[in-house]
Amino acid sequence: MRIPEETIAKIKDETDITELVASYIKLERRGRNYVGLCPFHDEKTPSFSVSPDKQIAHCFGCKKGGNVFQFLMEIENMSFAEAAAKLGEPLNIKIDTETSSVKESDMTLIRMHDYMTDLYHHLLMNTSEGEKPLQYLLDRGFSTELIRSEKIGFAPNMSYFAKNALLEQGYNEETAYQAGLLSRNEESFSYYDRFVGRIMIPIKNHQGHRVGYTARSIDGSEPKYLNTPETEIFKKRELFFNLNDARKHIRKLDNIILMEGHLDVLKVKMTKVQHIVATMGTELSQENLNLLERLSSNVTIMFDGDSAGQNATLKVGDTLLKRGMNVYVQKIPKKMDPDEYIETYGKEKFEQFIADEQQHYLHFKAEVLRHEAKENDMKFTQNLTLLANDMKYITDSLTAERLVAAISSIFGVDKHALSGQIPAPVRQKSDYAVPGPVEQQLSLRQKKERYVTRIMMTNREFLLEYRETLDENVLTYGPYYDIIRGLCAYFEVHTVFDLSLALNYLDPALTDTLIELDGMSIHEDVSHSEINDYLEDLSGIRNSENEKQELNRRLEIAERENDIELQIKLTQELIELNRIYKM
After folding, report:
1. Cβ neighbours of residue 317 under 8 Å, at least 6 residues apart?
2. Which of 14, 228, 291, 375 gives a 20 to 30 Å CA spacing to 113?
3. Which residue range or ranges hold the Toprim domain (predicted)?
4. DSSP character for 331?
5. What is the separation of C-alpha 80 from the centre of its chain, rounded to a whole number of angstroms?
6. CA-to-CA distance for 129 and 116, rounded, in angstroms?
7. Closest Cα partner for 190 from 167, 213, 160?
8. Whole-angstrom distance, CA of residue 184 vs CA of residue 344
């Protein structure tokens, strides 16, 4: 069923594209617009621009973007109906849609996870098998409300529980294996449950679909945590645990807290601190790093307080620092993790700790390296030199000044001497003007076609009057012809041109061209006489092309027959033809 035009217009008018885009990437104001790193391709210099006035977003690099519908369709891999339904929800506009934003094979795996999540959760909350793991969670301070909202469950100590449950639902063993829910004996080719006797913590992807689990043993069996293996829907390099829920808080605070443990994140979610995600391992992939850069300028690392957590903090901190990000550390007391901190000191003390004790990463690193050097003079010098070299990644002068004072104090050296050892700053990002559309080298004909298209774009009466004339022989440049056809459909429904709304009638590949046309200035008093002159001229150029082709054909014959006099005559005619029409 087609969504009514008035509903589409209402959703578009009542959805702020700046707020929508800002829920996915960090934006900075540049004049009347906002800019940020494009969420659709990897880049260092932001080229993604958001125009609140026109209600469009557009990348001048990869050309992706559009209005609120097109942006959401692209970033969430949704159909138009699904995007409209999602945008309509906060506006209390209900749109029925049966379409799926995910390919069917992936949706099958997601449905299997949804079914098993409900089943595991039921076992935890309502059966005798779940009493022990439930009590374990309650004893660790997890509330019943959190357990229900996160749908934490329990996989019983049975080898074929999930297998039989999925078979009863009509799924086959191989598909369940591909989903990561079953394991397989490669000798007998028999299938059995991957998760047995474990607390099941569902993992959602960034669109909110359940795609895997972190499974915690409660009987001392190893490994303590068993994750879903890599599957078509569960790719660790693309995921952060809890990002779907944390995203809006991250955008609001322009800060993201990285944690190690998934249970730690769940415990912290019971406090007022909500801008938290967990890594899927201490190695950050290129996809992880790109995502962090788009989400926030500031990343705070809060790993465990043991030596392994300290080493992981140094590794991740160096990586983020060299990417040009502002990196901080929430230094958990030794031999504690965030969960234990909350259990020991309480929620309010933890919230105060987050608010008060954020430390710059290089301050943290300086303390670690000074302790490591002890009384070893050679290591002392090496570590201090290493920190001085790290300072080149600090481009803010005030931050650099404070860090120099802190590091020199920690090492007991003169801050002026330390400053003299710091290399020139490496500027990953600079103040920039977002690049505009690349100026194409258009022929005279294309420039005339562009001008005619621009006139028709904002003048409904002219377009409907000349629509039959504006055929492929007049508009020979494909994008302009396609735009005119789309605008004809648009003006059948709407009386006034709206760039954002008009994009719904065009192929997304034409977005860049339409935006470029919208930026063209034309005088307001365009007349029928002017349009007729352009159309006659374009038709004349078209006719001259035929004449030109005929002259070239005759010139080839004259060259084969070695008729020098005719060659000269035909060449002069071609030169004159090109001069008249400047082809």
Report:
1. 301, 327, 329, 361, 364, 365
2. 291
3. 254-335
4. -
5. 18
6. 16
7. 160
8. 42
Encode burial over 240-256: b for 16+ CB neighbours within 10 A, e otherwise: bbbbebbbebbbeeebb
* Residue type present at position 250: I
Res 424: pLDDT: 87
Q: Give the SS3 label for residue 239.
A: coil
Smallest Cα–Cα separation from 259: which of 150, 188, 340, 154? 340
Count CB-CB contacts under 10 A for residue 144: 11
Q: At residue 433, does pLDDT exceed 70? A: no
The tokens for 256 are: 């993201």
Between CA 301 and CA 317 the distance in angstroms is: 8
- Compute the distance between CA of residue 520 and CA of residue 499 in angstroms, rounded to an integer: 13
DSSP per residue, 508-561: GGGHHHHHHHHT----S---HHHHHHHHHHHHHHHHHHHHHHHHHHHHHHHHHT
d(CA 553, CA 538): 23
Under the banding of pLDDT at 50, 70 and 90, the label for residue 154 is: very high
Distances from the Cα of 224 to the Cα of 220, 341, 376, angstroms: 7, 20, 39
CB atoms within 10 A of CB 74: 17
Work out the number of other CB atoms within 10 angstroms of the CB of residue 377: 8
Measured CA to CA, the distance from residue 46 to residue 139 in angstroms comes to 48
> What gap in Å lies between CA 314 and CA 192, rounded to an integer?
40
DSSP assignments along 369-428, one per residue: HHHHHTT-HHHHHHHHHHHHHHGGG---HHHHHHHHHHHHHHHT--HHHHHTTPPPP--S
- Three-state DSSP class for residue 383: helix
Q: What is the pLDDT of residues 35-61, one digit of tens each?
A: 999 988 888 889 999 999 999 999 988
The DSSP code for 433 is P
Residue 199 has pLDDT above 50, yes or no: yes
Please report, to the nearest 10 degrees, the dihedral formed by the alpha carbons of residues 566, 570, 571, 576 taken in order.
150
Residues 249/285, Cβ–Cβ less than 8 Å = no
263/282 Cα distance (integer angstroms): 16
Would you give the DSSP letter of residue 233?
Answer: S
Mean pLDDT score across all residues of the chain:
89
Alpha-carbon span 226 to 214, nearest angstrom: 6
Rounded Cα gap, residues 156 and 25, in angstroms: 41
Tell me the CA distances in angstroms from 213 to 236, 407, 444, 506, one per residue in order.
Answer: 11, 42, 61, 41
Interhelix angle 243-253/286-295, nearest 10 degrees: 40
Q: Encoding tokens for residue 241?
A: 């645990």
Note the pLDDT of residue 431. 44
Using the 8-state DSSP alphabet, how is residue 153 labeled? E
The phi and psi torsions of 51 (rounded to 5 degrees) equal: -110, 105
Which tokens hold the place of 449?
Answer: 């076609």
Q: For residue 307, what are the CA distances in angstroms to 284, 312, 314, 342?
A: 19, 9, 11, 20
**Cβ within 8 Å of residue 280, ≥6 positions away:** 227, 236, 237, 239, 240, 241
